[in-house]
UniProtKB/TrEMBL annotation:
It comes from the Bacteria. The keyword Cell membrane applies. This is Flippase. Its main location: membrane.
Length: 431
């Protein structure tokens, strides 16, 4: 059972209150962003139809995987270093930004050369167009700075403005019956506007980009800590979208469109525990340094709250699945209902995955995050081959849930170094 006195203890200190306030701002931004983007996406899906929506979703999946590579796994590392070494802020910003920019430029060049010499079709054109967003995403280092200072509300506005303008642009494209590649241009425009917002607030609070400086030792130090997270991030992105890659190969783009409609709804729920955990990460970094016993106790409380909240949400979504799909996507996507229902299990498991990541990053055990993610990827690849052939696009969701359960719950039981984390985590069962 939940002990509400212990839960309230999580919120009593002034420091904790600051993180709660920061979390509320992040939740507000994410909820508005997800709602606006989801409504626009639903209208786009209805306009494009199952096949072209499958093409659009497939291109987004590829861009998502490339973004995971180009961010270099630095998000959590930067937040941690900004907290620990505030005097090095300008060098941390400059080193992380330049490192990301170089990798993004290399990826763009490879894609452009691939289109010129090998594959000249609509799919490759959209991938190349979307790759320009990788350059603008480099400015997200500013977001990590504001997170570390528990001041996320100052970048919430730029995020809401960018997604709102991006949604308006997509609706305009639907209104004029634009071809599918134009939606790639709309996405790049949205990320460009977001980057301008980051730069505005960065300058407003006395941290202009011209003060940033690149430091080779700092860049090497960041990459030395983040390389497991680079591989982990790539593994996560592959794992989250490998089902769509394989569905295209086995069943075609129409199956990708059907499957992606359910995944889009699931993403709204799965993102919530990861968003909250990202906001409270600096809090647990400081708490671990000040009072280790309190750190373990409050991590256990967080596991309990996350599990109950996401489990309850998953049950509600399961019973409303058919109504939700019909309401938003219409009859042409009704076959995705069972995919959504099976995916509700992943919503519950995501609460464990999010806090596992917090715990391991606080402990500087990034390589363990990488290991579990690659276990997840390998399992998912194997299960997709077996289950897609037998169950169609529903088999892709079966494989996602099974591999997530094994990598998030079962894997930890066989890692002797994680005995303490398991005791903390499984107190949600014992109370």
């Amino acid at each position: 059972m939940l002990d509400f006195k212990n839960i309230l203890s999580l919120f009593q200190s002034r420091t904790a209150s600051a993180y709660i306030n920061n979390t509320i701002w992040l939740l507000l931004e994410k909820l508005v962003r997800l709602f606006v983007a989801f409504i626009a996406e639903v209208i786009v899906a209805r306009y494009l139809g199952v096949f072209d929506y499958g093409l659009w979703s497939y291109v987004m999946a590829i861009n998502f995987a490339l973004l995971a590579l180009c961010t270099l796994g630095l998000d959590g590392i930067l937040v941690r270093e900004f907290v620990k070494q505030p005097s090095l802020t300008d060098k941390l910003l400059g080193s992380a930004f330049i490192s990301r920019l170089i990798v993004s430029a290399i990826v763009m060049l490879i894609l452009l050369l691939s289109m010129v010499f090998f594959q000249k079709d609509m799919l490759m054109l959209m991938i190349v167009i979307m790759s320009f967003s990788l350059l603008f995403h480099c400015f997200s280092v500013i977001d990590q700075l504001f997170q570390s200072r528990v001041q996320s509300k100052f970048v919430v506005f730029s995020s809401i403005i960018s997604v709102s303008l991006g949604a308006c642009l997509k609706l305009f494209l639907v209104f004029i019956s634009a071809p599918v590649f134009c939606f790639a241009l709309a996405y790049v425009s949205e990320i460009f506007i977001l980057s301008l917002g980051y730069l505005y607030f960065n300058r407003r609070f006395g941290m202009p980009i011209n003060n940033w400086s690149f430091s080779t030792p700092i860049a090497k130090s960041l990459l030395r800590d983040s390389w497991p997270l680079i591989l982990s991030g790539v593994a996560i992105s592959i794992n989250m979208r490998v089902d769509q890659f394989m569905l295209k190969g086995f069943l075609g783009l129409e199956a990708v469109g059907m499957y992606a409609s359910a995944v889009r709804i699931l993403d709204l729920a799965v993102m919530l525990p990861h968003l909250i955990s990202r906001s409270i990460f600096p809090y647990f970094v400081k708490l671990k340094e000040v009072d280790e016993n309190t750190f373990y106790r409050r991590m256990s409380i967080a596991y309990k709250v996350f599990a109950v909240a996401m489990g309850s949400f998953a049950i509600i979504l399961y019973f409303l699945a058919e109504y939700i799909v019909d309401l938003f996507y219409g009859a042409q996507y009704i076959d995705s209902v069972n995919v959504l229902r099976v995916g509700c299990i992943a919503i519950f498991l995501s609460s464990f995955a999010a806090l596992n990541s917090v715990y391991l990053r606080v402990m500087n055990e990034q390589h363990k995050i990488m290991n579990r993610q690659w276990v997840n990827v390998i399992l998912n690849l194997f299960l997709n081959v077996v289950l897609i052939n037998r169950y169609g696009f529903l088999g892709a969701m079966y494989s996602t849930v099974i591999s997530l359960f094994i990598s998030t719950i079962v894997y930890d039981l066989f890692d002797s170094d994680l005995k303490v984390m398991n005791r903390v985590k499984f107190k949600i069962v014992g109370g």
